[in-house]
Specification:
Number of strands: 10
Oligomer: single chain
Bound molecules: adenosine-5'-diphosphate, magnesium ion
Order of helices and strands: HEEEHEEHEHHHEHEHEE
Helix content: 25-40%
Low-confidence stretches: 1-11
Shape: globular
Radius of gyration: 18 Å
CATH topology: Rossmann fold
CATH architecture: 3-Layer(aba) Sandwich
Structural class: alpha/beta
CATH superfamily: P-loop containing nucleotide triphosphate hydrolases
Strand content: 25-35%
Number of helices: 8
Distance between the termini: 19 Å
Largest sheet: 6 strands, mixed
Mean pLDDT: 91
Strand order of the largest sheet: 6-7-8-3-9-10
Length: 254
């Protein structure tokens, strides 16, 4: 197993400084206003995550997990507090720089797969490269390689409805991988899957972390899923109430 290939993508920027945490949150708040009601979804989150970590965020429904994840993934901004991603202050970064970051350095996987219907696995996986304006031939080549990486070689022309839930989630992971992200965010990726598909998906994430050095941040409310991570955060009422480091990479795949 070589770690060399992962080094080039370890930092988000070419000048990425290894001593700054990849993710650094200071006193993050997110307040939603719905009519007259104020919902404090995040209440002063402080968090540092290093490159190559595999972090599970746990907590009951409504505790703020998705809100935090969306901010960390630059899909949303905090109401107040500071978020630095590889040293970059996300609040003041130019929108096109953030869009570029999201396209090139960050991958997302969601509970509902979010695949485009009536569109082949290959075309779904190609999408981020299409937005990058890569030549179509190159889009197809890289998308096919990503599908192969998640064990879907031979399924390129299948539509989502012709694939099992676990296979659809693997297409979604392939789509997240085509851009060679340095961070992968997964919000309840096994929430709609049976036990054996869940194991397969977690095995893939574990491999991406161990072998390719991709930082993984995973939201789940199942402790056997969280057990794949080397660090576990527990959220309650918009705060991190527990932060436990496990022995690094005690593999739980059978
Ligand atoms: P989790 O992912 O842990 O279930 P969320 O981050 O989705 O929790 O939600 C945290 C709190 O913020 C909940 O009380 C939820 O109702 C509220 N919330 C989330 N998104 C919005 C929104 N767009 N508008 C208003 N309230 C929201
Ligand atoms: Mg959620």
């Amino acid at each position: 197993m070589t770690h060399g290939s992962g080094d080039s993508r370890a930092g988000l920027t070419s000048g990425g400084n290894g001593s700054t945490p990849l993710i650094l949150c200071e006193d993050l708040w997110k307040i939603y206003r719905v009519g007259d009601v104020e919902v404090r979804a995040l209440q002063g989150v402080n968090l540092a995550i290093d490159r190559r970590e595999f972090v599970a965020i746990m907590g009951t429904s409504g505790s703020g997990k998705s809100t935090l994840m969306n901010i960390l993934g630059c899909l949303d901004q905090p109401t107040r507090g500071r978020y630095r991603l590889d040293g970059l202050d996300v609040a003041t970064a130019k929108p096109d720089l953030l869009a570029e970051l999201r396209n090139r350095r960050i991958g997302f996987v969601f509970q509902n797969f979010n695949l485009i219907p009536r569109t082949s696995a290959l075309e779904n996986a190609q999408l981020p490269l299409f937005y990058r304006g890569l030549p179509i031939r190159e889009q197809r080549r890289q998308a096919a390689a990503a599908l192969e990486r998640v064990g879907l070689a031979g399924r390129e022309q299948h539509y989502p409805t012709q694939l099992s839930g676990g296979q659809q989630q693997r297409v979604a992971i392939a789509r997240a991988l085509v851009g060679s992200p340095s961070i992968l965010f997964a919000d309840e990726p096994t929430g709609n899957l049976d036990t054996s598909s869940s194991r397969e998906i977690m095995g893939i994430l574990e491999r991406l972390n161990c072998e390719d050095g991709i930082t993984i941040i995973l939201v789940t409310h199942e402790s056997d899923i969280a057990a794949y991570a080397s660090r576990e955060l527990v959220m309650k009422d918009g705060q991190i109430v527990q932060d436990v480091q496990r022995m690094p990479h005690l593999s739980v795949t059978s």
